[in-house]
Design a protein that fits this description.
mainly alpha, about 75% helix, single chain, about 130 residues, about 0% strand
């Protein structure tokens, strides 16, 4: 009985996440939305729609960590940064104007560039540290 409730709860949360992704998309398109929320929304949508996962799904347990923790955290952060009136309108619009957001290679390229930049900065910092210690 408890398992059924948990499964039902997870299904409801998953549906709400899908609706929230569409809502934050509409909030992103709203010209009144401030710059910081737009940047976080862009990161969130890029991560959600990228066909490349941060942690590949074939890695046991950790593979689904990004889908279960990182994506919901990004969506929650995006929603908290969006002004309430804009989010209310975006949610209403998401219910009446559903769109099909699908995996997009454009976002994958953005994430590949982002990860390469992060790796570059980490390697640069390690090299500077090793050089300073030598």
């Amino acid at each position: 009985m408890k398992i059924r409730k948990t499964v039902l709860s997870l299904k409801i949360r998953a549906k709400n996440l899908k609706n929230d992704i569409i809502a934050i998309y509409f909030a992103y398109k709203d010209p009144i939305t401030p710059l910081l929320p737009k940047l976080v929304i862009l990161l969130t949508l890029g991560y959600a729609l990228s066909p490349i996962d941060l942690i590949p799904d074939f890695i046991p347990v950790l593979g689904y960590l990004d889908d279960l923790l990182i994506l919901p955290a990004l969506i929650t952060l995006s929603i908290r940064l969006i002004p309430a009136s804009i989010m209310k309108n975006a949610r209403a619009r998401a219910k009446t104007e559903p769109i099909n957001l699908h995996k997009n290679w454009f976002f994958a390229i953005i994430f590949i560039i982002l990860w390469l930049m992060i790796i570059y900065f980490i390697v640069s910092a390690v090299i500077k540290l090793v050089t300073a210690l030598s």
